[in-house]
Design goal:
The structure holds two protein chains of two kinds. Chain A is α+β, with helices and mostly antiparallel strands. In chain A, about 50% of the residues lie in helices and about 15% in strands. Chain A has helices spanning about 5-25, 30-50; strands at about 55-60, 65-70. The longest helix of chain A has 22 residues, at about 30-50. Chain B is of the alpha/beta class. Chain B folds into four domains: about 10-105, OB fold (Dihydrolipoamide Acetyltransferase, E2P); about 110-265, 3-Layer(aba) Sandwich (Rossmann fold), CATH 3.40.50.261; about 265-300; about 360-399, no CATH class. In chain B, the strands form three sheets. In chain B, strands 1-2-3-5-4 form a five-stranded mixed beta barrel. Chain B has a five-stranded parallel beta sheet with strand order 7-6-8-9-10, sandwiched between helices. In chain B, strands 11-12-13 form a three-stranded antiparallel beta sheet, with no helix packed on it. The chains are: A alpha+beta, B alpha/beta. Strand 1 of chain A pairs parallel with strand 7 (about 165-170) of chain B, so a sheet runs across the interface.
Amino acid sequence: MEKNKTFEENMQRLDEIVGQLEKGDVLLGDSLALFEEGTRLVAACREELDRAEQQVVKLMKGSDGAPVETAFATEEA
Amino acid sequence: MEQRIYSVSEVNGYIKDLIDGTSALNAVYIRGELSNYKVYPSGHHYFTLKDGESALRCVMFKGSAVKLRFRPENGMKVIAFGRISVFPRDGAYQLYCNALTADGIGDLHVAFEQLKEKLYREGLFDEAHKKPLPVYPRRIAIVTSSAGAAVHDMIRILRRRYPIARVLLLPVRVQGVEAPPEIAGAIRYANRWKLADVLITGRGGGSLEDLWAFNDERVARAIYDSEIPVISAVGHEPDVTISDFVADRRASTPSNAAEIAVPDIAELLRKLRDAEIRMAQGTIHGIELREKRLETLAKKRVLSDPTAFLQDRRLQLDFVHQKLSNAASGRLAGDEKRFTRLAAKLDALSPLKVLGRGYAMVQDKEGAVLRSVEQVFTGDRIRVQLADGCLGCTVDERE
């Protein structure tokens, strides 16, 4: 379920969970469920951060006005 | 006839009077190129104005020099204003310069101030209109020249800091008359096609004329109208353009814009590790808190001794009984009767007494006391409470 959300939403949810768990006023059963959800979110976020190399494209206006992508060669750092 | 012989001072003084008396030379604008520019510790500036054929020595005293709006450099084309006079010690005439403006840019400077004032009055620089930048942008549009160091600097920093974002380059010219409509057009195009979450527009450093496209009203309005938050990144730190005022964020350089646009992945990974630790600690802390609460409760008598409740009731009963006995013993017969009745009632109140007489209390599995056979069905589990314990039973029959 975390996969369908944006990285931002996942990070926000994670912040919430950490906050709730640190306040310690959640039910025991809930706290374990939150911990599990949080762990899954951490994994999903990490996976996203580990994802493939950054894509850089050059956009040109096509004949119909829609953007057309072309590769853009960059100097490697 | 004897020829009059003059002293050098007399000649120089004579020439000085001649020149000073020529009103055309008292207030003169001279166009030329700066050379040999020197700033003396006294604060006076000495330089030579020249063109293809000639040179003119100039001095600008401290009082005028502090009013300069730019730093004069050799080779710069300028218009100097002042008066021509003679420095008698050297027998040389020179320009006593009161004002120096950059030739050609003077007009631009005026235009800049006028546009700035106009757009400010219209509210294009209002803080309230500025949009926050997304924290984790997925697509970053860059509107700049595809040539030059700026675009490569930005891409290199974006790749290092946040490689999960997609970078879209909208190449435009950034100087010349074509530049403003191209930049404005690209910003509007990015908005029309919702190409990005954040947009950077700018260019590397250059002269005031080089950066001029970013002082164009069309560019300013395109930035203002942009739904996509815009970071303006023009030239170096001290360069300020109209774009910088209108944009949602001003970056000091293109590299700085790349840093502002995205979070640092190393920082995010640290944050995730930190979140893991804090979640684990929070959960453990929550469990420990409950254990402590449980321990405190377990130590209470009602839990350590399950019959305590009944004992308490018995003690209470005895106490009341005693009180009644005392009261009754010295009372009239009527009271005696009342006492017997009360005592009987109290006796009946004691669940132990009742159960001790061979009665039983029946509860369903939820613990509700059964008062009617209607409350159970055949096969239900029930609990039968006797004086000294409890039986778990199943209902076989119901009559």
